[in-house]
Recover the amino acids of this structure.
């Protein structure tokens, strides 16, 4: 449990555009040095939340504070506290990377001498020093993301907000991006990261918030979210040969209820089933298989990841959701 | 080819821009006829009244074609390339000529539709009597169709060469102005002379449709141009327009190959990393080397202004030096022509081309620089970044306006040597020079504020640039249409009132340039222009303030 006061505090945040409700009653908080993974399908309200946090949109009701500053009323203060990297890079034509960073550093009021040093530092941190003389519009997507991160660091903000930083990156660049984000969090920055590439988030996030249809569906540490959404476990039984798959399947089906169907894959020599049973009950199942002469190589629970959690929330949300997306149903949490 | 024509035409017709153009043209020509339709029942047998209306109609139509036709073809290829759909087209079995022909037919069909919208007004002119159907109306429309085709092919060629839609629009407008107005300049100086230079100038002016239209409407007395019935101006224009159209088409089809997309990313070469010899050579060639590593912005400079200079292709110092040098040379050449007796003019008459040169520079350059000041930020996705900085709307507006005002001031200053020569020869002219320069400075500021304010209401730079060009042209060229029809159908008072809004006309009137001697435009023009600039400044400031506010 983090005892320090939260850096980012959102209370009952609601944003309406006419009849359409983009955000409804969203509340969450993030502590210093934490990474919040902010996930949700397209149109869920992620960008609206981010725009409110960076002072580019006003909430209809509720409050959002960063380091004590009200995002709606103290937008000038917020600009100095937050480093924001939107989904699109935002390149100026005919400008080299160093000139590009020089402009933004000057816009944040850094003196000429400070800028010279700071640009070197952020280029180094973002691993973008080698591209300082390149034209920004000619950079590859991965390079642009690095320059974008360097830009957000120029004024040394407390909170960094990255909208889809790993979008469109190749696997190597994604690994490097992940390491860079962890490095920033380790240096004391608070990060809010949205992403569609969920495995990326699961590897770096301390907290996860899942939003759909403008409502917060799940929020908390990653393992807590998993427990919250994964009440049923997927068990895989690996056999030594596929020939025994049919017999093993029959034994398991006799032990399990109708709501726990077994899927047999003789080609893989494996059986899978979803169940809500306890570890003791699963132990009894394994014993029954062994006693029946089935040669079991492995009996294990498949690890559910953030993607499963996300899909689980989305599925439950879709099932409960009325036809009109502007009127979301009660939260599943 | 057919699917491309279909798609081009449908895409154009679906845009709000196309709808606005159609409505504007219909309203303009309807208004013209309604205003000039005879109010009494008497028949005017000489046809003089209808000829006057026809002249105005013809010039209005030519101005509309010049301003509106380049809009769509100028962006058609460059937009396809930026969206990535050109690669899809080039990968299809369609040949480059078929793609080109389809696109040209689509934009040409829309231009023909715009021309067709003026037909009811043309019929009304004809119904008034005194206008020949075969010798005037049909020839005028035929000529305008050729102009349309020529400008459409020119715009598409430019579109195939440029990398952004707004650059395509401004280069196209620059070329169109070059073809239609600058091509008249050599004849202006050499008319009545003999020798090959005079003959070349005589042919060169036929690149412009203006003399041909003047001949068709029987208007042989506009400024210095003698467009009387003697020279076969229309046929010469048709010949030259045909040749240039073929050349533009051929060049564009040649460009429409797969290698159009085969461009390496810039490696970011920098002169500072080169050998001493290379550095020295580049220093001599460029004076200010565009590839050197630039220093950090000063502590007290407006960062937005410096950013605008740096992110603008022609904003870099070496281009500014070239531009200023070019302006200075032209103004000195003009002065030299007069002082050596090469052109038999009075000193005041020489001021006319100088004023026109400065006004042309402002009309061509200022909208291209100022129109996209806000819209380009929105289109390129940099506006959210600018909003996330602590820069106030005032600093943003000031920086952006200064980034255009400085080049404008340099352009105006570069033409001062011509005035200096005039004042050296005839010192009594100093007061007129000062008054004219004040008018021109106000004209420049008006062009700047008008372009920036009009452009700030659009999200796309190409649209903003087009709208700014149209607005600026309406002020500086549109009002001159009324001047062209001075005495009839417009009276002296009407013309003077309209010209009050045109600071360039005020500068011409200060020097008593032929055609402007009878108009007293200063100081009323200064007050009107300054007031308009103040209003536009408030509107722009509000617009930027609004854009920086939370949604």
């Amino acid at each position: 449990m983090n005892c320090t006061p939260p850096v980012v505090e959102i209370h009952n945040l609601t944003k309406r555009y006419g009849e359409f409700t983009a955000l409804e009653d969203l509340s969450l908080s993030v502590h210093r040095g934490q990474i919040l993974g902010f996930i949700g399908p397209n149109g869920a309200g992620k960008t609206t939340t981010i725009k409110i946090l960076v002072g580019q949109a006003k909430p209809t009701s509720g409050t959002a504070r960063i380091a004590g500053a009200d995002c709606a009323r103290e937008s000038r203060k917020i600009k100095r506290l937050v480093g924001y990297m939107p989904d699109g890079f935002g390149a100026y034509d005919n400008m080299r990377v160093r000139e590009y960073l020089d402009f933004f550093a000057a816009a944040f009021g850094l003196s000429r001498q400070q800028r010279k040093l700071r640009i070197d530092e952020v280029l180094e941190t973002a691993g973008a020093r080698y591209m300082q003389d390149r034209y920004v519009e000619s950079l590859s997507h991965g390079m642009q993301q690095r320059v974008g991160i360097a830009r957000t660091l120029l004024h040394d903000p407390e909170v960094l907000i990255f909208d889809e930083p790993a979008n469109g990156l190749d696997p190597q660049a994604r690994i490097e991006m992940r390491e860079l984000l962890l490095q920033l969090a380790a240096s004391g920055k608070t990060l809010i990261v949205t992403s569609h590439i969920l495995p990326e988030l699961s590897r770096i996030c301390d907290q996860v918030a899942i939003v759909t249809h403008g409502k917060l569906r799940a929020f908390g540490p990653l393992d807590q979210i998993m427990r919250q959404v994964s009440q049923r476990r997927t068990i895989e039984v690996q056999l030594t040969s596929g020939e025994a798959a049919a017999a093993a399947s029959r034994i398991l089906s006799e032990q399990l209820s109708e709501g726990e169907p077994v899927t047999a894959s003789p080609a893989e020599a494996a059986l899978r089933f979803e169940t809500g049973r306890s570890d003791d009950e699963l132990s009894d199942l394994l014993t029954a298989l062994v006693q029946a002469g089935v040669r079991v190589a492995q009996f294990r629970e498949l690890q559910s990841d953030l993607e499963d959690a996300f899909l689980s929330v989305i599925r439950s949300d879709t099932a409960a959701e009325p036809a009109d997306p502007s009127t979301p149903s009660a939260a599943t949490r | 080819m057919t699917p491309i024509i279909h798609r081009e035409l449908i895409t154009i017709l679906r845009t709000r821009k196309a709808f606005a153009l159609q409505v504007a043209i219909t309203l303009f020509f309807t208004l013209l006829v309604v205003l000039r339709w005879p109010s009494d029942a008497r028949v005017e047998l000489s046809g003089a009244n209808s000829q006057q209306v026809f002249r105005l109609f013809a010039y209005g139509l030519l101005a509309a074609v010049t301003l509106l036709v380049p809009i769509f073809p100028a962006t058609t290829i460059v937009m396809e390339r930026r969206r990535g759909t050109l690669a899809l087209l080039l990968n299809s079995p369609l040949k480059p000529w078929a793609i080109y022909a389809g696109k040209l037919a689509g934009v040409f069909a829309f231009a023909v539709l715009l021309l067709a919208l003026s037909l009811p007004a043309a019929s009304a002119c004809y119904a008034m009597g005194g206008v020949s159907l075969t010798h005037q109306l049909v020839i005028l429309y035929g000529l305008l169709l050729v102009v349309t085709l020529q400008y459409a092919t020119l715009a598409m060629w430019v579109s195939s060469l440029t990398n952004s839609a707004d650059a395509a629009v401004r280069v196209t407008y620059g070329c169109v102005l070059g073809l239609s107005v600058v091509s008249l300049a050599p004849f202006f100086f050499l008319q009545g002379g003999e020798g090959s230079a005079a003959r070349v100038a005589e042919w060169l002016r036929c690149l412009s449709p203006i003399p041909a239209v003047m001949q068709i409407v029987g208007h042989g007395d506009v400024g210095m141009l003698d467009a009387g019935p003697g020279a076969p101006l229309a046929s010469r224009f048709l010949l030259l327009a045909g040749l240039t159209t073929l050349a533009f088409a051929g060049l564009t089809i040649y460009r429409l190959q797969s290698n159009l997309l085969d461009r390496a990313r810039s490696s970011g070469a920098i002169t500072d990393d080169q050998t001493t010899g290379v550095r020295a050579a580049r220093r001599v060639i460029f004076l200010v080397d565009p590839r050197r590593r630039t220093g950090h912005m000063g502590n007290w400079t407006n960062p937005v202004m410096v950013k605008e200079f740096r992110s603008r292709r022609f904003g870099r110092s070496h281009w500014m030096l070239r531009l200023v040098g070019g302006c200075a040379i032209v103004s000195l050449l003009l002065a030299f022509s007069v002082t050596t007796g090469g052109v038999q003019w009075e000193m005041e008459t020489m001021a006319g081309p100088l004023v026109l040169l400065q006004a042309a520079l402002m009309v061509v350059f200022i909208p291209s620089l100022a129109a996209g000041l806000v819209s380009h930020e929105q289109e390129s996705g940099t506006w959210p970044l600018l909003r996330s900085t602590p820069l106030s709307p005032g600093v943003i507006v000031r920086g952006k306006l200064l980034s255009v005002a400085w080049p404008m001031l340099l352009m105006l200053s570069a033409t001062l040597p011509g005035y200096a020569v005039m004042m050296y020869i005839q010192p009594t002219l100093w007061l007129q020079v000062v008054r004219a320069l004040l008018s021109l400075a106000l004209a420049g500021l008006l062009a700047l504020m008008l372009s920036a304010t009009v452009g700030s209401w659009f999200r796309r730079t190409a649209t903003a640039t087009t709208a700014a060009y149209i607005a600026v042209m309406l002020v500086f060229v549109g009002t001159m249409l009324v001047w062209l029809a001075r005495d009839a159908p417009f009276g002296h008072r009407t013309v003077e009132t309209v010209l009050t809004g045109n600071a360039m006309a005020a500068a011409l009137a200060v020097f008593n340039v032929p055609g402007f001697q009878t108009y007293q435009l200063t100081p009323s023009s200064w007050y009107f222009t300054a007031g308009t600039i103040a209003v536009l400044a408030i509107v722009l400031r509000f617009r930027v303030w609004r854009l920086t506010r939370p949604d």
User: Anything to note?
Assistant: Chain A has two domains: 8-228, 231-301. Chain A touches chain B through 45 residues (CB under 8 Å).
